[in-house]
Specification:
The chain has helices spanning 2-24, 29-37, 41-50, 66-82, 94-98, 117-127, 141-149, 170-180, 191-198, 213-225, 249-265, 280-290, 319-323, 343-346, 362-370, 379-391, 393-409, 413-424; strands spanning 58-63, 86-91, 108-111, 131-135, 154-159, 185-188, 207-209, 240-247, 269-275, 296-298, 310-312, 328-331, 352-354, 373-375. With 425 residues, it is α/β, with parallel strands linked by helices. The chain has two domains: 29-212 and 412-424, 3-Layer(aba) Sandwich (Rossmann fold), CATH 3.40.50; 222-409, Glycogen Phosphorylase B (Rossmann fold). The protein has a seven-stranded parallel sheet with strand order 3-2-1-4-5-6-7, sandwiched between helices. A seven-stranded parallel sheet has the order 10-11-9-8-12-13-14. Strand 2 (86-91), helix 5 (94-98) and strand 3 (108-111) form a beta-alpha-beta unit. Helix 3 runs parallel beside helix 6 and helix 4 packs across helix 10. The radius of gyration is 23 Å and the shape is globular. 40% of the residues are buried.
Length: 425
């Protein structure tokens, strides 16, 4: 069946994908950036590899984008500390690639090539990895088939598989079995995921539940964050801090009216808004929305702070540290397409609030079930929940403790993954 799927994929999907990307770049800037960045992929890769000690083993990590790469970092950093190996990191998305170019633990950082058979073969001939590790779900057929053909071990790490997924439908199931059977190991985040992978008829010895490195990553980053001083020591003295994290306009439309009422009733409440995309236009939009209601100040102008009760973050890379100062956090995306990372605030032991679209996050579902996470569906619920949490310190502490214990109980996946990696290396 692999041969049939190989020809089907290369004679139907690949030509269609090339045509789609050619036209899509006219309307989607990110696609255009990705295409442009790959034009000299192999020429640049040859130059980058020239400076690598080829006597060392090469471990290749692939991530779709930044979120998946964050999950890879605990593993990469432990390997570089414990083993004398080379690390090459690839990305599918331009955002992951451009934001990680200065990552100090990688010897080579590049785009993942277009998934043609020729490009996959050329990439592997140049890199010559001793082990390929794919984070979560971003696997590409030609590359996987080439890895198997060259007898290069490959793994999926932090793998998830829903019970009811289109990948299990009749024809799709056969196709995905042809891919998953090529992997040396599939390391899942839970026993349920392992069972769901097992339904593809795979060798059970290939599938092992080890946990999720996101817990390890947020825990380590929280320890680092405590050492950073974004605000002076007494900045929030006697204040109750609310962080509106990774917010989209759809989140802000619900939360800002509720927050204004809460802040009117409790003068100790101060809000930090962290837009998902802190562009100049979006920051100005927020300032216009709040004009005449509460004084705002941009984070970049904090030296001019005069007691403003709303701080708008106009930079990136500080959200996890900001959660350290929060008494309550809201995680955005949950009124739009899907929630962002709920573990980042949970690790600090604070209640985590989010909207109705959080089914994409197993962690959010568990936190709601445990009582540490709280779902809101509209402005009225947002006001009621925030007013209750801000006025009841014991309730805040109780729900925050549930969140903290949930994170700590799931730390340790990195060590289990390393054990599987070292068996191969």
């Amino acid at each position: 069946m692999k041969t049939i799927w190989y020809w089907f994929y290369n004679l139907t999907f690949i030509p269609f994908a090339k045509g789609f990307l050619f036209f899509a770049q006219l309307f989607h800037p990110k696609i255009k950036i990705g295409l442009k960045g790959r034009r000299k992929l192999f020429e640049n890769l040859i130059i980058d590899l020239a400076g690598v000690d080829r006597k060392k083993k090469m471990v290749w990590f692939h991530s779709a984008s930044m979120g998946e790469f964050e999950q890879a970092k605990p593993i990469i950093e432990r390997i570089k500390t414990e083993k004398d190996v080379n690390i090459i990191v690839t990305f599918f998305s331009p955002s992951g690639y451009t934001n990680s170019l200065k990552y100090p633990f990688a010897d080579v950082i590049t785009y993942f090539p277009f998934d043609t058979a020729l490009a996959a073969k050329r990439f592997l001939n140049l890199v010559r990895p001793n082990l390929a590790i794919f984070m979560r779900y971003d696997i590409w057929p030609n590359m996987i088939w080439q890895l198997e053909q060259k007898s290069i071990p490959c793994m999926i790490v932090d793998a998830t598989m829903r019970k009811k997924t289109p990948r299990k439908w009749a024809v799709a199931k056969s196709f995905h079995k042809s891919l998953f059977s090529c992997f040396t190991k599939i390391l899942t985040v839970s026993e349920n995921d392992s069972e769901n992978f097992g339904e593809f008829g795979l060798d059970k010895n290939k599938i092992t539940a080890v946990g999720d490195t996101r817990f390890d990553r947020v825990y380590q980053k929280s320890l680092d964050a405590k050492q950073k001083k974004l605000f002076r020591e007494d900045f929030f003295k006697d204040k109750k801090v609310f962080v509106l994290g990774s917010s989209w306009e759809s989140d802000e439309e619900v939360l800002l009216p509720a927050l204004q009422k809460v802040m009117k009733n409790d003068e100790r409440v101060i809000t930090i808004i962290v837009p998902h995309e802190p562009t100049v236009l979006h920051v100005e939009y927020l300032e216009n929305q709040l004009h005449g209601k509460y004084e705002t100040i941009r984070f970049s102008l904090l030296n001019n702070y005069k007691g403003e009760r709303i701080i708008i973050i106009d930079s990136i890379g500080v959200l996890l540290t900001l959660y350290y100062y929060a008494h309550i956090a809201y995680v955005g995306g949950s009124f739009k397409q899907g929630i962002h990372n709920v573990l980042e605030p949970a690790v600090y032991g604070i209640p985590v609030v989010f909207g109705p679209k959080h089914e994409n996050s197993q962690e959010a579902l568990v936190m709601v079930k445990n009582g540490g996470g709280i779902t809101i569906k509209n402005k009225k619920e947002a006001y009621r929940v925030l007013r209750t949490l801000f006025s009841n310190q014991n309730l805040r502490a109780e729900k925050g403790q549930i969140c903290a214990e949930y994170v700590k109980a799931n730390i340790g996946a990195t060590q289990k993954i390393l054990q599987e990696i070292y068996r191969i290396l």
